[in-house]
Design goal:
Blueprint lengths: L5 E3 L4 E5 L2 E4 H23 L6 H24 L2 H6 L14 H22 L12 H25 L14 E3 L19 H21 L2 H4 L3 H18 L16 H22 L5
Parallel strand pairs: 1-4
Antiparallel strand pairs: 2-3
Length: about 280
């Protein structure tokens, strides 16, 4: 028997301890950062980075990702409301995180991390032992892909950010929060599980970047891995957005939605990074 669709009715709350509810989305976030930390630890050991420097990187990544993602959602998708109610920006427990904002936050956080790393070790390290902004960008994208994949799985667990109706056999009938897509008989229609599509491309990018890292391309062609990451992740995002249902009201009148417009600059930067990587010589 061929599967016509998948009925999805997962409770977003994994378990509760007293008044505290732990959601699958939060578990995916935590698992992503844990596995990402372990993956980056292998990278740091291979590069013979100082002990303790990875712990500092984790803090920068956590803080910059959450702040960036939250501000991104508030300013990109609901600016009128949050500019009128600025204190509500702090209510992160109510939901609302944007991946593009998280990406911008990470870029800023990593820049601060590199400055602090080089400044704190200025007296102890030679120029070869310091790191550049491109050096960390080329390596951090590996665990970022893994974190991104798990976050998208978390979106599926929340039955959110799904796509338009589909007749494909892997379409998901999202029982929770899918009242807008009903057939003539009132039955819920299967929709594209776009969160899983994005997670797939994140994993594809991670495998490719791991291969590039093992081939030493992070040193031979600085910026090549970062550029490849930008093109795959945000290029696929532009394509997948065509399958998504409208997230906010103002997107209904747009040729490209907000997610697509925000992705275009990242793809262009990715193309520029790859071109520059092949024009420059080896450098750390």
């Amino acid at each position: 028997m061929v599967l016509n669709y998948i009925t999805w009715n997962l409770d977003p709350v994994a378990f509760s301890v007293g008044p505290l509810s732990v959601r699958w989305y939060g578990i995916c976030w935590a698992l992503g950062f844990l596995l990402g930390y372990l993956l980056m630890n292998k990278v740091y050991k291979k590069e013979r980075m100082p002990e303790g420097s990875l712990d500092s990187l984790l803090i920068y990544m956590l803080v910059s990702t959450v702040i960036g993602a939250r501000l991104g959602h508030c300013l990109f998708y609901e600016p009128q409301y949050y500019l009128s109610h600025p204190l509500d920006i702090l209510k992160i427990w109510e939901g609302g995180l944007a991946s593009h904002g998280g990406a911008i936050g990470i870029l800023i956080g990593l820049w601060l991390y590199v400055r602090r790393f080089n400044k704190s070790t200025k007296k102890e390290k030679t120029d070869k032992q310091r790191i550049s902004y491109l050096w960390i960008l080329d390596r951090i994208v590996i665990p970022v892909c893994l974190v991104g994949a798990l976050i998208r799985v978390g979106n599926v667990c929340n039955s959110e950010i799904y796509g338009t109706p589909t007749t494909l056999p892997w379409g998901f009938v999202f029982v929770r929060g899918n009242e807008q897509f009903q057939g003539p008989d009132g039955q819920l229609l299967p929709c594209h599980p776009t969160g899983l599509y994005e997670a797939f491309f994140c994993l594809v990018a991670m495998v490719l970047l791991l291969w590039m890292f093992k081939r030493g391309l992070g040193d031979k062609r600085p910026g090549l891995m970062f550029g490849t990451f930008l093109i795959i992740i945000f290029g696929s995002r532009i394509c997948i957005e065509f399958l998504k249902n409208v997230q906010v009201e103002f997107e209904k009148s747009m040729v490209l939605d907000m997610g697509q417009w925000l992705s275009v600059p990242f793809v262009l930067v990715g193309v520029a990074m790859i071109i520059l990587a092949f024009r420059k010589g080896d450098a750390r």
